Amino acid sequence: MQLLKLKETVEFMRFRKGAMVFSILLMLAALGSLFVNKLNFGLDFTGGTLIEVGFDQAANLNQIRQIMDSNGYDDAVVQLYGSSKDVVIRLAQREDVKAEMLGNQILSILKQGTGQELVMRRIEFVGASVGDELTEQGGLAMLTALICILVYVAFRFEWRFALGSVFALFHDVLLTLGLFSVLQLEFDLTVLAAILAVIGYSLNDTIVVSDRIRENFRKIRDGGPEEIINISLTQTLSRTFITSITTLLVLVALFYQGGALIHGFATALLFGVFVGTYSSIYVASAVALGLGISKEDLIPEVIEKEGADQEAMMP
Amino acid sequence: MLNKSPLWKTLLVIFVVAIGALYASPNLYGEDPAVQISGLRGVEADATTLDTIKSQLDQQQVGFSSIALEQGQVLVRFKNTENQLKARDLLDDSLGGKYSVALNLTPATPEWLAGIGGTPMKRGLDLSGGVSFTMEVNMNEAIVKAQDGMVGDFRSDLRNEKIRYRSVKKSTNGIDIQFRNAEDLAQATSYLKRRNRDLLFTENEETLTLSATMSEQKLKEIREYALQQNITIIRNRVNELGVAEPLVQRQGQKNIIIELPGVQDTAKAKEILNATATIEFRMVDQESDLGNALNGRVPASSQLLYDRDGRPTLVKKRIMLTGDHIVDAGSSFDEYSRPQVNITLDSPGGSKFSNATKNNIGKPMATVFIEYKPTERKDSEGNTIFEKHEEIISVATIQARLGKSFRITGAGSQQEAHNLALLLRAGALIAPIQIVEERTVGPSLGAENVELGFQAIVGGFALVFIFMLIYYRAFGVVANLALGANLILIVGVMSMIPGATLTLPGMAGIVLTVGMAVDANVLIFERIREELREGKSVQQAIHQGYDAAFSTILDANITTLIAAIILYAVGTGPIKGFAITLSIGIVTSMFTAIVGTRTVVNAVWGGKRLDKLSI
Fold first, then answer.
1. Considering only CB atoms, which chain A residues are within 8 Å of B437?
2. pLDDT category, B386, cuts 50, 70, 90?
3. pLDDT greater than 80 at residue B240
4. CA separation for the pair B174, B198 (Å, rounded)
5. For residue A303, is pLDDT > 50?
6. A65-79, A119-133, A197-211, A273-287 — which one is most confidently predicted on average?
7. Each residue of A103-124: pLDDT tens digit?
8. Is A154 near chain B, with CB under 8 Å?
9. B310 three-class SS
10. CA–CA separation, B254 vs B227, rounded Å?
11. Residues of chain B positioned with their CB less than 8 A from the CB of A239
12. What's the CATH number of domain B276-439, 3.10.180.10, 3.90.580.10, 3.90.1150.10, 3.30.1360.200?
């Protein structure tokens, strides 16, 4: 079976200007949203208390909010979590009540207020100091990862590819963050893990494409860089397609069956796979193309350059 | 001939998958309910304890499936939880006080498998239920305490040297000493500089002040020591909880992470972690009659205390010294190779102790262990009431006037001396600790997470399986074989590596690897198709396909691996869990997708005359 039957080379790079504008607009929108809406940081980053309670019947959120309000917890965020019987309550960090007491206290006022049987399913109490440290570490992890990738790709391929792939990664991460900011989805550590996975996925895609471009530059002597990139993208297109499909299949399974705890994780990755696939074509390749050749440059020069590079890489 | 694998390669693939399957297999056996009995405060469970437990269980006809002594703990396994609970109650009553009796789940790995190191994967808290605490050590306190020590040291040093000073005061990260004249200042400077090489001294001749500051190095040492010491203390306390696989680990500069899988009673865990244990030195009351005291006539100034074997001793109520003056304690042997405990006090403690012991040479002194244990009772505000628990751990005769460092003999065996030193150290928290983060996952939520994660893996797998089968037909079967082998290898490696813990994001990582692992095969298969389209022969196409795809797969996976390894090194908690499975998954999938499928493809299609390929 074959999903794509391509006889002719698809002229991907023809649309690269439009795609670039599109990408830049999206990135600006994401940046704007990050500035205006910010990220809805989860407990891991802000500090505070999270209590997950299981009710024996469908929970009445309004009633719960009222109960919390009237007991002095007016900052409580009450949400359903996964099912109509599971509720998470998030509280900002407080000085006056000891953490160890808080859970029991809230459980008992809720029991009294709703008259329902409750089970404490999860309680997390995170100090903001730890939150700070985690934010720092998370950011540091990403930065280090990006730099190391840049170095490896520059070493294995060429600096234009390296810049292209890192730019693509930056693009994907920014857009995913933007999505979380626009939709105000909770950004917790699992989402951070997902973003790191998006980096992995996007990178995988970019490298596969770059690899083919490099190969074709060496193989095909006649044809401009734009043409060669188009040929390479067309050749790898069916692979890109299949891999995206299998990954998406798995992610859909995660999204629907993985439970509420990894919902954010699955959402970020689902989105990330789409952007990652798009960016390997229209960001990574387009940037490499844009960096490599200005319009006046002639084709042989580029081929020579590739050849020179190849020689330089040979011991 | 093209596409024939050498025998060693085929054998290697079979061998690797077989080993993977072998080490993955302990996960199939599940867990046995068990009761774990471990000694408290220096007591160790031994063969006698084991016999006692065995006979008690037999007597009450509580059936158990096995009983064993492992690392100073007795582990009794049961067929069902009913017997487990019965046994716990029974043993709790009979062993009481001296041992902790804890419920436990123990892997039911068969002995031969356990013998070759087979263990099931460790599950993170999110999957097993349990508590995790992050405790922060108050480093300011640690430094203030060190400064206090320095103030005392300087004062006594100067006094001993007969150098007159006006005042000794704490400053930021150090001490300021004021003198009356330049001569004293110069004398003190040269003397103190010699004695304290790890401090930086600056003289100010105008204000007649000598400032001593702790170097960065010294500050770092203090912090490091406070952290290490608190970890030791917490480890001791965690052991008392009798948790199966507790984790006590430093995180960063001042935090300690404690993970207690399976613990549901968080209140108890917290109380024990926060519990304050300390040591007091008191004189033994020799004037009054022990017999009278035992009959209830205890003199007002004395108190009747017991040691851990129940032997009574009458001790004075007046405390000579408390444990918070202890800076360090260790065990060694004296000149007659009897075990001894060496104790070092801080300066104020040293002079206090020296005064207290000078008139009591030749008399017995008791070391009393004090612990505040939480009770079931609560006060009006809902705070747990703590009960003071006192126990004599040693009685020793004072040989000479004791100063800053001294030793206690008569601790019995070397092991006991060692434990006593541990307790003394544990009694002296250098810096207070507080819980900054706490996570509790209920057992039901943990079970649910496993269930959901498992479903997602099965669901994702099934979808990918079907897709590959339809899309690549016979080669799809090969890719699916590789996928299955990949999962077995991931589980096998996760079980083998001691530090690897399966968490929910880790499960997500496995699921993701499944999606991405297919990529290597897709790359190869698409290449083969391309080659076929170009009119190459079947054998040529297979050969070229694998060849051409190899460097691409390598590059793509290495870059992802770099990212995963960095995540592991820098990340914590869920990120680490994810990074572990992802890195393992990348490595195993490279093996199964490149080497594994090649072997199968070669075995089925290699070296034959074929006109068409089912791809």
1. 124-127, 130
2. low
3. no
4. 12
5. no
6. A273-287
7. 778 888 888 888 888 888 888 8
8. no
9. coil
10. 6
11. 519, 522-523, 526
12. 3.30.1360.200
Chain A contact set for B548 (CB, 8 A): 215
Nearest to A208 among B452, B552, B564 (CB): B552
Fold category of B7-26+442-605 in CATH: Multidrug efflux transporter AcrB transmembrane fold (1.20.1640)
Nearest to B464 among A120, A145, A250 (CB): A250
Beta carbons of B459 and A257 less than 8 Å apart: yes
Same CATH topology for B31-107 and B139-218: the answer is: yes
Number of neighbouring beta carbons within 10 Å of residue B357: 22
What's the ipTM? 0.84
Q: Which of B437, B470, B563 sits opposite A200 (nearest CB)?
A: B563
- Lookup: tokens for B230: 């608190």
CATH number of this structure's domain B31-107: 3.30.70.260
Domain ranges of chain B: 7-26+442-605, 31-107, 139-218, 276-439
Interface of A with B in 233-292 (CB under 8 A): 235-236, 238-239, 242-243, 245-254, 256-259, 261-262, 265-266, 269
Distance from CA of A268 to the nearest CA of B (A): 12
Indicate which of A216, A242, A248, A269 best probes the interface with B, i.e. most B CBs within 10 Å of its own CB: A242
Q: Is the pLDDT of residue A181 over 90?
A: yes
B426-481 pLDDT tens trace: 555 566 677 778 888 887 788 888 888 888 888 888 999 999 999 999 999 999 99
